[in-house]
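Ticket #4471: structure export looks truncated?
Reporter: QA, pipeline team
Priority: medium

Steps to reproduce: submit the single chain below to the structure queue and open the exported record.
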Amino acid sequence: MAVLRIADCLSKPEKIDAELICGMYRYAGDAAQEVGDANTRFSALVGCAQVRQSCGMFERSEALWQAALDLAIASGISQHVTFARSKLAMILLQDPTESNLDIVDENKDHAGHASMSQDDGIVQIHGGVSARVEKALRLLQEVVAELSQTASPTEHAIARMNLVAALKRQKGVLSKRKIEQEMVLALDLVTSVGGHPGLQKSIEAALLEHYEDNAWLADGNTSVEQRFARLQAKQVAQVKTIEQLVADKGKPLDPDERYAHERALWAAQKLEAIKNARDGDSDSDDAAPACPPGQGWQR
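Actual output as written to the record:
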């Protein structure tokens, strides 16, 4: 446990010795295995997987997350199973050797995905989604299905949004509708208990973008049209609020001080307007006659 804690501390700085730290995690994990401490061994695997991932070693990180998942399943610790499944799925979706681009054929139909060999750098196109995306999708579906009823609504919402990330790698009408369904459920979960403000805004923004990219989802569906309109109105209101905050930056918070500040600002603007008007009048006077216009001024 002591070695594990030291490894945790050493893994925080930006520049780290990955091999040294992972060696310490490995030592802590092996020691924990000898005494049957599944919790400490799981923590060691997770720590090492995170270090490998932060260093861009995706294959080694994937293997470590898989080992952590296998250990969690064997030990029967549901929280560890959910965590490892989610992390393994996300590392599969982040594989840098596979393209996230939508590749289509000459008929504008979805053709598949692109992958690049790490050995020779050759890019190949394959039909359908990759096996890694399919595995990630299956893992995240299992997380959603098996998440404990004791988990918070926020945890359920996050699980569904993770599933959305995998569903976006699929194409077709059914996938688009499934993405909408999962995001709506996630939003309902968050708002049902007062919500997590940051997460709620994130889900609302993602759902609004999904509707904007797939406006056909609202065709003939009153409830979807109303939800779409509410999200658009809320976004407009948020933009106005941000603009007002920017405009109010530097103004006093105290009502009396704020009133005095605004009066002073107003007075400065009026003086500037008067000055500009006088400057304009003086310019026009230079070009005018030296005497007042009209008749009878001589009297």
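Status: closed, not a bug. The export was complete when the record was re-opened. Leaving a note from the reviewer for reference: The domain at 1-95 is CATH 1.25.40.10 (Serine Threonine Protein Phosphatase 5, Tetratricopeptide repeat).
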